[in-house]
Amino acid sequence: MKNLAIILAGGEGTRMHSAKPKVMAEILFRPMIDRVLDAAKGAGVDDVCVVTGYKAEILEKHLEGRAVCVHQAERLGTGHAVMQALPYVRENGFDNVLILNGDAPFIDSDTIREALSYHLTRGFVQTVISAKIDEPYGYGRIIRDKNGDFTAIIEEASADKETKKINEINSGAMWFQAAALVDLLSRVTNDNSKGEYYLTDTVGIAVGEKRPVGAFTAKNADAVLGANTRVQLMELNELLRHKILEKLMLAGVSIPCTDGVIVDPDAEIGADTVILPGTIIKEGCVIGENCVVGPNTVLYKTKVGSGVTLNQVQAEEAEVADDANLGPFVHLRPNARVGAHVHCGNFVEIKNSTLGEHTAVSHLTYVGDSDVGKGVNFGCGVVTVNFNGKTKNRCVIGDDAFIGCNTNLIAPVSVGDRAYTAAGSTIDRDVPDDALAIARSRQENKERWVIKRKPYREKKY
Ligand code: UD1
Ligand code: CA
Questions:
Q1: Can 341 be counted among the known catalytic residues?
Q2: What digits encode the pLDDT tens for the residues 119-139?
Q3: What is the pTM of this model?
Q4: Same domain, 215 and 316
């Protein structure tokens, strides 16, 4: 069996007031189209074809290598959108075709799979995924006859008063036998108030010819929700955000106040970890047990061990080992690897560097492109001078070294094990193990200089 998913994504989404296609609008930092694409792939379809229209070039670039795109030059309705993909369907010999709306981001793989088995076991030519919702306004309604058999979909614009009361709606997602899709679509017309080719008219046509169709009611009613405005987008964000936070809490993560806490659905967070307000955990994060994350911490593709404190930390593509204590105001940039029991705090930036265990970088320091050993102490205001305007170079600092306050380490340079640098030194030659490097001019005191020169200043007290 060879199955294709067609994702409809041509619409402009006028009410978003955006220069981007509507399906690029994000739910928890991911465009809606990506969520729909993942659901299709997760359900095991063999191929995905996306129908683009408004600002097609943005979508084509975004989807490069992940889906085939076909272009719908004019937006003449969902039926017309699917017609654009029919050459692809015919050329590639698919058995079944799944249609998905790119603006319904909560469709999930389980619902798609369950609907397919319902579709196959009953031998339907078309199986629509429906849902019962409290506010059906705007959706196509599922029409059933006295026996409960599915007979048609009526769009909001064509619905009479009684039909509008029906709360079982078309999710927009549906399975077709490929040959039936081609055949049914060829008979859809634009004879309606909007002058559009409605994909949903295929149901009435099939039923008129006594061909078997079905409506599969999704257990997950959220699977159908869509966003047409940014207010609805916020509502979808809130729905998913709370769902994720509740799942985490039920698995042992403490979130005493959910204000401003946003966590990616795939984040792994261990039990007894506490997430404090204003914390955003984006994709690709793993956090161990017994950590305190936040307040106001933002993590992206970052791995955090257990027993770690991250107070007002921003970290991207970084790693933090067990029992490290970072913050307040620490920035870990890509490839920062912070060892166990490390402390960083108060305006410290670490980039493309390793810090060995028990190292302390407490104040106003930049460590970039450096390999730092264990138990190193950085005084306040140390700078690794890693960039000479042309190339980046590395600093190597041995175990138990002591870097004095306001030291500049001009890379490439190394400081040996247990070596010291004097405060205010600019180090551009390697420092051997156990040595003290002093690289500053010797202090001179000019006796009675003030009395002789009388540099009078106005007294302020
Ligand atoms: C559609 C369904 C409705 C269903 C609802 C579920 C039809 C006629 N109606 O209505 O029964 O309840 O979805 O959300 O199918 N698109 C194109 N080209 C077009 C028109 C639309 O690619 O010419 C795309 C849009 O970008 C969108 C999807 O198709 O992703 C659905 O279109 P939209 O106009 O939002 O349909 P609804 O009015 O929501
Ligand atoms: Ca829609």
A1: no
A2: 999 999 999 999 999 999 999
A3: 0.87
A4: no
